[in-house]
UniProtKB/TrEMBL annotation:
CDD domains in alphabetical order: ABC_Mj1267_LivG_branched, ABC_TM1139_LivF_branched
Protein species of origin: Bifidobacterium minimum
Enzyme class: hydrolase
Keyword flag Nucleotide-binding: yes
Any Pfam family: BCA_ABC_TP_C
Residue ranges occupied by any ABC transporter domain in the UniProt entry: 18-287, 336-569
Record protein name field: Putative ABC transporter ATP-binding protein
GO biological process per UniProt: L-amino acid transport
Entries under InterPro entries matching the protein: AAA+_ATPase (IPR003593), ABC_transporter-like_ATP-bd (IPR003439), ABC_transporter-like_CS (IPR017871), BCA_ABC_TP_C (IPR032823), BCAA_Transport_ATP-bd_LivF (IPR052156), P-loop_NTPase (IPR027417)
A molecular-function term among this protein's GO annotations: ATP hydrolysis activity
UniProt keyword list: Amino-acid transport, ATP-binding, Hydrolase, Nucleotide-binding, Transport
PROSITE patterns, alphabetized: ABC_TRANSPORTER_1 (PS00211), ABC_TRANSPORTER_2 (PS50893)
Gene3D superfamilies according to UniProt: P-loop containing nucleotide triphosphate hydrolases
Length: 575
């Protein structure tokens, strides 16, 4: 018996922190969670895996109070919390992160992390018990304002403790966040926003830590870094419930694994047994494809290893520059071009002389690690960020000074990072929002029906609130919403983020269909380099705001130079 098995056995003798019995939740008649029951012991790490739409995130939302259950029991240390509001659940020692990441962009890193300690404050919340009474809850807020203006000795002691805890949390990610503490969260890379969110959730040392896909949007080396941090929390005795798609991370971290499909638990046990369970394999990776178009050999290889955690000691090779930009495609005028674009955030030179081409009816991948400049390039194309110099061309037109609305009307659409649905609006209302620049009501209505034919799952959920759907369903809605504007080109920011392997394959096939069936050009901003290149025609690799490598996707797919430019390493000079 190894140490992991010893821990799994011994942890079951610890007190039960979370007890869930026959938990159920439906949305518009669809069973999202169906009779889920399990126990989570003190110091135990349980991971929930399963395909998108299996009920994983809904289970987390029910436990944390963001959704009220239809029926069932949720107990924390023997006290019922089922149906309680989020603040009340938090007061009982439950902290969480979110599937798509939620930080306050207008607050600094330190300020975001500090918010997680709010529930532990007592001197600064003298009347916090009144918050549950709507008529007098303003007295609690007034008390907090008074304590912030007139600081007594107990308040000062709490502030000192808060500063120590913020220092400790930042120190966990010191190489990533240590120099960014005073920076506003909106300036951070996606991975650093996730790190900030994890630090905020942990600062109060919660009784139960809920992590909903904490490594979504991170590359392999970043995932390995987060795994190391979570293993450290586990060694300290933290109780963790984790939702995650990356099976290697789940296996390395978890004492036990719950596999879900269709809202039900289909397997429970130690990680190795669950991952090899035939029902789990069929649900998570997909059953027989039947009439589905088979993936290419290169794409199959990529999908098979997309969840692996890479050894951080692998040697990196030198980056070389690609030569013939766009090769044969250069003969025709590109549909979209950036020419020598420079973009700044204050003194930070985010894009440095960036030039890219997107031909008509082609898929182009823009790759790179976090903070490499990918999202800034997307914002520049969409008109959300103006370059200091350089030009953006759409066909033969210079659109550098055009508004975002004008760009959308001309045929440029977007599928943004983390989907950005309107969560309180229905599927159909979200679809209609994609046609806001159009005035032909009858044609818009016909297009909505066509979207339901292209994405049948959306038709089944047309009256369901978008915020209650799974990540994969929201991604399909984001695609359909973009198509409602009749685009000639769609810019997609991290379209595979947070999706299970089966859903990743579905998304890649949908992207290829946009090109092959509709003739739409696609620019994919993606961290999963091999995934994006497996369906692309051409690729560019960004590093520190510069194009470090470019070429035909087939040439780049297995080129070791991509690894260095993507993960970082010896810097090279561009031609």
């Amino acid at each position: 018996m190894n140490l992991s098995e010893d821990h799994r056995r011994s942890v079951l003798e610890h007190p039960i922190v979370l007890r869930v019995r026959e938990l159920s939740k439906s949305f518009e008649g669809l069973k999202a969670v169906d009779g889920v029951s399990f126990d989570l012991h003190e110091g135990e790490v349980i991971s929930i895996i399963g395909p998108n739409g299996s009920g994983k995130s809904t289970t987390i939302n029910l436990i944390s109070g963001f959704i009220k259950p239809d029926s069932g029991i949720i107990d924390i240390d023997g006290e019922s919390i089922a149906g309680l509001a989020v603040p009340d659940v938090s007061e009982r020692g439950v902290s969480r992160t979110f599937q798509n990441g939620r930080v306050f962009g207008g607050l600094t890193v330190d300020e975001n992390i500090s918010l997680g300690f709010h529930r532990r404050l007592r001197a600064q919340r003298p009347l916090y018990g009144l918050q549950k009474y709507p008529v007098v809850r303003w007295l609690s807020l007034l008390g907090e304002v008074a304590c912030s203006l007139v600081t007594g000795p107990h308040t000062r002691e709490e502030n000192q403790e808060l500063h120590k805890r913020v220092d400790r949390e930042v120190d966990r990610f010191r190489e990533r966040l240590g120099s960014r503490r005073a920076d506003y969260a909106y300036t951070l890379s996606y991975a650093n926003r996730r790190r900030t969110e994890i630090a905020r959730a942990h600062i109060s040392e919660p009784r139960l830590l809920l992590l909903d896909e904490p490594t979504a949007g991170m590359n392999q080396s970043e995932t390995a870094e987060i795994l190391q941090q979570l293993q450290h929390l586990k060694a300290q005795g933290h109780t963790i419930l984790l939702v995650e798609h990356k099976i290697d991370l789940v296996t390395a971290l978890s004492d036990h694994v719950i596999a879900m499909d269709g809202g039900r638990i289909i397997a429970f046990g130690d990680p190795d047994n669950v991952r090899s369970n035939p029902e789990v394999v069929a649900a998570y990776l997909g059953k027989s494809r039947g009439t589905r178009k088979p993936a290419s050999a290169g794409q199959s290889d990529v999908l098979a290893k997309q969840n692996a955690i890479e050894d951080g000691d692998n040697a990196l090779v030198t980056v070389r520059n690609g030569d013939d930009r766009n090769g044969d495609d250069a003969a025709s005028s590109p549909l979209l071009s950036l020419r020598d674009v420079n973009v700044f955030y204050g003194q930070v030179h985010a894009l440095q002389n960036v030039s890219i081409d997107v031909p008509e009816g082609a898929i182009v991948s823009l790759l790179g690690g976090n903070a490499s400049g990918k999202s800034t390039t997307m914002k520049t194309i969409l008109g959300l960020k103006r370059p200091k110099d350089g030009k953006v061309f759409y066909g033969d037109d210079d659109i550098t000074g055009h508004s975002t609305r004008d760009r959308v009307r001309s045929g440029i659409a977007a599928v943004p990072e983390a989907r950005r649905m309107f969560p309180a609006m229905t599927v159909e209302e979200n679809l209609l929002s994609g046609a806001y620049t159009r005035s032909d009501a009858r044609a818009v209505s016909a297009d909505v029906q066509r979207m339901y034919e292209r994405f049948p799952r959306l038709g089944e959920r047309r009256r369901q609130q978008a915020g209650t759907m799974s990540g994969g369903e929201q991604q399909m809605l984001a695609f359909a919403r973009a198509l409602m504007s009749h685009p000639r080109i769609i810019c997609m920011d991290e379209p595979t983020m947070g999706l299970s392997p089966r859903l990743v394959e579905d998304v890649l096939e949908q992207i290829a269909r946009l090109r092959d069936e509709l003739g739409i050009s696609v620019l994919i901003v993606e961290q999963q380099a091999e995934l994006a290149l497996s369906i692309a025609d051409y690729g560019y690799v960004l590093q520190n705001g510069r194009i470090r490598l470019h070429g035909h996707a087939g040439d780049l797919l297995h080129n070791p130079a991509v690894q260095e430019a993507y993960l970082g390493g010896q810097k090279t000079q561009s031609k």
